[in-house]
From TrEMBL:
It comes from Rothia amarae. Transmembrane segments: none annotated. One of its GO terms (biological process) is polyprenol biosynthetic process. Belongs to the UPP synthase family. Z-FPP synthase subfamily. GO terms for molecular function: ditrans,polycis-polyprenyl diphosphate synthase [(2E,6E)-farnesyl diphosphate specific] activity; magnesium ion binding; Z-farnesyl diphosphate synthase activity. Binds 2 magnesium ions per subunit. Substrate binds at G34, N35, R36, R37, W38, H50, S78, T79, E80, R84, R202, R208, L209, S210. Its EC number is 2.5.1.-. InterPro entries: UPP_synth-like (IPR001441), UPP_synth-like_CS (IPR018520), UPP_synth-like_sf (IPR036424). This is Isoprenyl transferase.
């Protein structure tokens, strides 16, 4: 049964009030899946779906800011996405570039790209540079945008940078291997200096991570939602947060 708007508003407020502030995640990763299926159901173009998804990003970040969640990482473009048809890829890159510009102008949060940026068009890299400068002083919400991102590739790149650094310092491979620890890898990841995500949310009903934050999600909690990303509502987000707040995190134990 579909609730009337007044009852829906009451339900939403009740959900929000049931989540203790001290149990909110401090870093949320989101796999925004379902834009293409959403558009196909409406008989619209794939680009229309990506544009609808981008609009929901703006709403989602406003919800995070209202709740005081300080960090969000959004999975927007995987390394696999870069292999899509040239026309679809061009549309997707255009939507992302426009979204980055809008987020920078609206100053919703500090914008940071996360991924293999050398694989991206120069115009998108320039948009990220400009967004970083425009939002550098924002401290209450950091928005990491994962573009040209692949979890396995990130680990390969981290190890490569570590080995180059150690070689430049004159250390042998035997010395590197003997002293290697988890933090050595972590400080060379695309997300170096950032806390690992507490909660990963994936929309569209798919229950896999698709290479998103492979290293960083070792102790994350996962929440899978049936809604396609453009249909993901604040109430869906609050349900995810309520579910997270009720879990007992074990960190591998």
């Amino acid at each position: 049964m579909k609730l009337s708007q007044p009852l829906y508003n009451v339900y939403e407020r009740s959900l929000a009030g049931a989540i203790p502030a001290d149990k909110l995640p401090q870093h949320i990763g989101v796999l925004m899946d379902g834009n293409r299926r959403w558009a196909a159901q409406l008989g619209e173009s794939t680009k229309h779906g990506h544009e609808a998804g981008a609009k929901n990003v703006v709403d989602f970040l406003s919800w995070c800011r209202e709740l005081g969640i300080p960090m969000v990482t959004l999975y927007m473009l995987s390394t696999e996405n870069l292999k899509r048809s040239p026309a679809e890829l061009a549309d997707l890159l255009d939507v992302i570039e426009n979204l980055v510009g809008y987020l920078a102008e609206s100053k919703v949060g500090k914008i940071r790209p996360v991924g293999q940026l050398t694989s991206l068009p120069a115009s998108l890299c320039q948009a990220f540079d400009a967004a970083g400068e425009q939002t550098e002083e924002i401290s209450d919400l950091q928005v990491n945008i994962a573009v040209g991102y692949g979890g396995r590739q990130e680990i390969v790149d981290a190890v490569r940078e570590l080995l180059k650094e150690e070689a430049a310092a004159g250390r042998s491979m035997q010395e590197v291997a003997a002293g290697l620890d988890i933090e050595d890898i972590s400080r060379h990841l695309y997300t170096k200096g950032m806390p690992d995500p507490d909660l990963l949310i994936r929309t569209s009903g798919e229950q896999r991570l698709s290479g998103f934050l492979t290293w960083q999600s070792a102790y994350s909690e996962f929440y899978f939602c049936e809604a396609l990303w453009p249909d993901f509502r604040r109430v869906d987000f609050l349900r995810a947060l309520r579910d997270f707040s009720n879990r007992q995190r074990r960190y591998g134990s």
